[in-house]
Amino acid sequence: MTEDPALAALGRVRAAAQQAGRRRRPVTPPTMSSAGPDERDPQLLGGMLSQWIDGNDFATALAVAGVAQRWQQIVGEQVARHVSVGAFTPLERGGELVIEADSQEWEMQVRYLTDRISRRIDDEIGPGIVTRLVVRGPGRRVSGGWTVRTGRRSPRLPPPVPPEDTLPLE
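User: That's the sequence. What structure does it adopt?
Assistant: Structure tokens below.
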């Protein structure tokens, strides 16, 4: 008995349909055409700047610049009048921040406050960025580093003369 070719083809199609029903293809999200959103569309400036900063390793430099900008809020008004932020040197882990005092007295005072200042900096910009604080006092720059001024003392100014319209204290 010969089988009808049309019935044989129908049987093959039904068998293929049953196997296809068992192994379904995973559903993939539809891809957008050029009319839909894609990476070529205009992006928000903040997101693009964040990617650029992270891609070029500028995050640490910007964080330290933020410390210099908010220095008065970090250490207080009185300390900020006598102490300023100097250079930042990146190290293998974190970095070294130089703090410059305008007198030897303030240099000594800030040396006692380095732990507290370090904690405040970590609170402001995150831990691990500034790992070492170096306090420097007044001095002049020489090839070997900073040195304290030595030699002649500054001239003493005469006491101020009171204005003529005031009465003498005698």
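Residues 104-125 form the longest helix (22 residues).
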